[in-house]
Amino acid sequence: MIEEQIEGWVHWQLVSSPRTAAWFGFRVTPIVATQGTTRGPDGSILPFAAYKAISTEVRPYLDLSVPEAAIVQVSIEIYAETYDAAKAAAAATRAVLHRATGKAYGNTVYFSLLQSASDDIAVPVDGKGVPLYAVTQTYEIRSQESI
Prior knowledge:
Blueprint: H1 2-16, H2 18-24, E1 28-30, E2 48-59, E3 69-80, H3 83-97, E4 100-104, E5 107-122, E6 132-145
Parallel strand pairs: 1-2
Antiparallel strand pairs: 2-3, 3-6, 4-5, 5-6
């Protein structure tokens, strides 16, 4: 359950911040992009992001009256038609999520830290489409259930 709450927080951060909304709009989805939402009117690929929780560690406190703390690792894959656009959208994502805090979805996020980032390219298997450039960022998000 904590994973879904943190994924909800990540989604909310990315679609509500003007920095990332300028790149993604509402093209921020869990796991994979929604079919048909990533193309512009001219057929070009619009930047989009897909996120997923990849690991969770729960740390109980000795004081049982205090809710457990969770560390959730979240991977965000940012795609664009050009390398420059992918890097710029990734920079906006970092600006929004790195060191972010707040309350949402029943949790208090104490901090979100960028742990790693890597670049990649996705070549279409049909040989007709354009390649997609990707930047994958992994964040460590520490949170606790709001009391």
